[in-house]
Amino acid sequence: MLAETTLNQTTPELIPNAVLAVDVVLFTIVRKAPLSEALQVLLVHQGDQSGHGRWILPGVLVRSSETFAEAARRALAEKAGLDAATWYLDQLATYGEPARDSRGRVASIAHLALVRSDDLTLRPGIDVGATEWCPVKRVEERVLAFDHAEMIRAGVQRIRSKVRYSWVAFQLLNEKFTIPELRAVYAAILDPGLARLSSGNFKKAMRPLFESGVLQVVGRATTGRRGRPGDLYRFAGPVTGTRERELPW
Amino acid sequence: MLAETTLNQTTPELIPNAVLAVDVVLFTIVRKAPLSEALQVLLVHQGDQSGHGRWILPGVLVRSSETFAEAARRALAEKAGLDAATWYLDQLATYGEPARDSRGRVASIAHLALVRSDDLTLRPGIDVGATEWCPVKRVEERVLAFDHAEMIRAGVQRIRSKVRYSWVAFQLLNEKFTIPELRAVYAAILDPGLARLSSGNFKKAMRPLFESGVLQVVGRATTGRRGRPGDLYRFAGPVTGTRERELPW
DNA sequence: CCAAAAGTGTTCTCAATACACCCATGT
DNA sequence: ACATGGGTGTATTGAGAACACTTTTGG
Predict the structure, then answer these.
(1) For site-directed labelling of B118, which of A22, A174, B88, B205 has its Cα 20 to 30 A away?
(2) Are B129 and B39 within one domain?
(3) CA distance A30 to A40
(4) Based on the domain organization, do B60 and B158 belong to the same domain?
(5) Please, are residues A69 and A89 in contact by the beta-carbon 8 Å criterion?
(6) pLDDT computed for residue B6 by the predictor
(7) Tell me, in Å, how far CA of A156 is from C1' of C22?
(8) What is the domain range of residue B92?
(9) Helices A148-165/A179-189 angle, 10° precision
(10) Going along chain B, which residue ranges are E strands?
(11) Residues paired with B219 in a beta bridge
(12) B78 to chain A: which residues are within 8 Å by CB?
């Protein structure tokens, strides 16, 4: 068994022994929802004639000439009618317990995706009964197939970590946004209690952004609510940038 | 939550479309080496009759009934004669560009492993020409096959991140160790200049460990070098624990 | 005794928080 | 007018870094 088929130039072909799949944990911030439920994840309901459908993450099998990222974006397109071509997308982890799927050895490469705003139209794809945004706090109530609940946990952990040392938060905002909206994103992801932090202190935490000029004022928000409307900003920096010092929250 | 069994009778089998492999980025700290080269990674040389061997990470194909972690430990056993049964092991990322391997679609799940001390005997396995510890600083000089150089970069990034908010550093030390040895691990992974930090400040950074009692004094080191020998400590806590506050280094 | 390394305590600095105050809008 | 929320500045606290000092070993 030591003479197993390993890397060997004389072997022109390797025999496939597994099925590759991708699943996508797509997060968004729903502004209308209360802060504690603003962070939501996209779930699709597997259509089933017997009525015994189940909730799963959008996912597809990887095609032979396709990268994982391409497959992940295709999953969002085919399962929910979303054009994720330009969205933030990152590999999370790969799940492939031997007994994970009775139909064969399946390895699913979970991905994390983020989308701005919530005025998207979900269009259930083929073999999909329904699509919905589910507050992360309430995922426990849903019965998710496979290890998709675990994937969501990993996704939450990842975005909580990323938001503290990188600028991914702007992936969840529109082109123009106010500082309170930005604070809401951080509060929804990290801690609802963060909203109680004074506005001045929050802006101080974002100081490196202002100093480097990647946050530019582009006007004043038109308000519908009470109180003074906030200044509108635009994020002009690369999302791949990271802070030198992690946020303390 | 696993063990999917009876839900999709219409498709009893999925046709395998890829080959699953694991590769292991195994780090250790070599005490004899200078600090800047103390962090080393295990490389194996693919034996080749033509003499055109190349350096790669230890890896194997995943067996059908095997978890990724099991396959990763087996890779260390088969390629380098190492018994990694109890070693720290963590999934890094999965690499599977369509054109990654000309012999077919291969997805390799890279893993990060850590091993205490360097008094291990490497025993080159079958179809392995040689095994060696390579200082991470000098990996650039080696020509690594596939995307293994990228895997090592990801491994370095991961361990640098982990060491700042978790207790993985103790995985690289023996059962008993001194504070200066612990500082050497941090310096080797994060920044050699860290060794210039005063001992008091380093111990202050480790204060949460002392206060929670997971670092216990077990004696005094027997010295061979100059100067006062350090106190010997034992780490009694779970490696999975994390600090509430990340290290500033 | 001296140099080197380990360990302890104190001071200084700076960043994160708390808080007080001003501005703009809707009711 | 005033309540509500956005924005700015100042004071206070606490953690990290610098440094002085003691302890223990080898030469």
Answers:
(1) B205
(2) yes
(3) 7
(4) yes
(5) yes
(6) 41
(7) 39
(8) 19-164
(9) 140
(10) 19-29, 39-46, 55-56, 59-61, 88-95, 106-114, 128-135, 176-178, 215-220, 231-235
(11) B232
(12) 2
Identify all chain B residues contacting A244, using CB atoms and an 8 Å cutoff.
none
Q: What is the pLDDT of residues A65-116, one digit of tens each?
A: 999 999 999 999 999 999 999 999 999 999 999 988 888 999 999 999 999 9
Residues in B 98-157 with any Cβ partner in A closer than 8 A: 98, 101, 103-107, 109, 125-127
Q: Nearest nucleotide, C1' to the C-alpha of B227? A: C5
pLDDT of A1 reads 38
**Residue whose pair of structure tokens reads 């999934």 in the numeric block:** B91
Could you tell me the two tokens for A120?
């998207």
B240 inside domain: no
Q: Do B103 and A11 touch (CB under 8 A)?
A: yes
Residue where one domain finishes, among candidates B130, B164, B198: B164
Q: Do A14 and B19 touch (CB under 8 A)?
A: yes
Q: What is the pLDDT of residue A117?
A: 78
A249 in a structural domain: no
pLDDT tens sequence across B177-230: 999 999 999 999 998 888 778 888 999 999 989 888 899 999 998 877 888 999
Q: Which of residues 156-175 of B touch A (CB under 8 A)?
A: none
For residue B195, give the nucleotide whose C1' atom is nearest its CA. Answer: C5
Domain count of the fold of chain B = 2
- One domain for residues B186 and B154: no
pLDDT at A48: 65
Residues B59-85 have pLDDT tens digits of 999 999 999 999 999 999 999 999 999
